[in-house]
Amino acid sequence: SLLRRSLVTLAATAALVPAAFAQAPIVIKFSHVVAQDTPKGKGAEFFAKRAAELTKGRVKVEVYPNSQLYKDKEEMEALQLGSVQMLAPSLSKFAPLGVKEFEAFDLPFIFDDYADLHAVTNGPVGQKLLKKLESRGITGLAYWDNGFKVMSANKPLKSVEDYKGVKMRIQSSKVLDAQMRAVGAVPQVLAFSETYQALQTGVVDGTENPPSNLYTQKMHEVQKHLSVTNHGYLGYAVVVNKKFWDGLPADIRAALTKAMADATKVANDTAFQDNQDALAKVKASGKTTIHQPTMAERFLLKKAMFPVHQQMSSRIGQETISEIYKTTN
Ligand code: LMR
User: How far is CA 76 from CA 6, 36, 81, 190, 248, in A?
Assistant: First the structure.
């Protein structure tokens, strides 16, 4: 009968509903604060592509660059609340969660080069630090490189004395605060997304960042001088909401782990060159005078900033600092 046939159709349709739900992709919102054309931006884009490939479309990673979804502080809260699933904040931004050991990465002159850094991030210290995030509801998946920071302002920053009274934007790290005070500068914490405008309007005079961040945010257009001090490192931890991660089917988690390993390689392979290129582009713009510190200038900067290691050791934990010294020697 007609009734029977429509009941059968209804049952068939109902049976399809759960199947349709099962087919809907798992969405990962990946929020970050920098431009797409940066090591982090490229790493995130590659991860999205690779995750789709390796899960055959069962996972869809949506990347939101340039603080378009959340600014620094908000993104960390959003991750813990589960409003986004994935972030790659700079290592300087984890201390406000109560994991102060991460500020060891901010210590001025602690790493001579990427080799020193990788010895730490790829070794037991790096893994131990990521584990500490778990009690905050966060799982650490990888370290991604950016690079070594330059100093910029509207006046030349050559000698230590040049920093006196200069208002410098920093990330939310007590170690960076101490580093700036060590040379007589006046540090001010601002979200990354607010930095360009703060420089433009004179809320702050200068800042520190790897060249790729400076250039892609057009900070060189509002900074007349830049010193290639390479005094400290800025890089990232890629993190996911732990509950979300633990709740994924095991095969999906395995595929995403592989996609993350591949994306880590992409981000890290491009980081050094991106920063070189950015510096060349700043130079070519003719808007900013680039100063290469002499060995003596760099030595004096190091001498002025190095006491910060001692000063911050009880905050960061002497054990972590000693382990880093041992790993990089
Ligand atoms: C900054 O705030 O300067 C950086 O952490 C931005 C970034 O994510 O590289």
Answer: 51, 20, 9, 15, 21
**Angstrom distance (rounded) from CA 31 to CA 244:** 15
Closest CA to 275 of 231, 230, 236, 238: 230
Rounded average pLDDT over 178-186 = 98
Closest Cα to atom 1 of ligand 1? 192
For 239-293, the pLDDT digits (tens) are 999 999 999 999 999 999 999 999 999 999 999 999 999 999 999 999 999 999 9
Residue 245: CB within 6 Å of ligand 1? no
Other CB atoms closer than 10 Å to residue 136's CB: what's the count?
16
Rounded to whole angstroms, what are the CA distances from 308 to 46, 110, 178, 326?
37, 11, 6, 18
Q: Whose CA is nearest to atom 2 of ligand 1?
A: 192
Q: Tell me the β-bridge partners of 59.
A: 26
pLDDT at 23: 76
Q: Which atom of ligand 1 is nearest to the CA of 213?
A: 9
pTM beyond 0.90: the answer is yes
Q: Which of 133, 143, 86 is nearest to 111 (CA)?
A: 143
The residues, ordered by sequence, that sit 6+ positions from 154 with a Cβ below 8 Å of its Cβ are 205, 206, 223, 224, 225
* Ligand 1 proximity of 146 Cβ (cutoff 6 Å): yes
Q: Predicted ipTM?
A: 0.98
Query: For residues 327 and 205, what is the distance between their CA atoms, to the nearest angstrom?
Result: 36
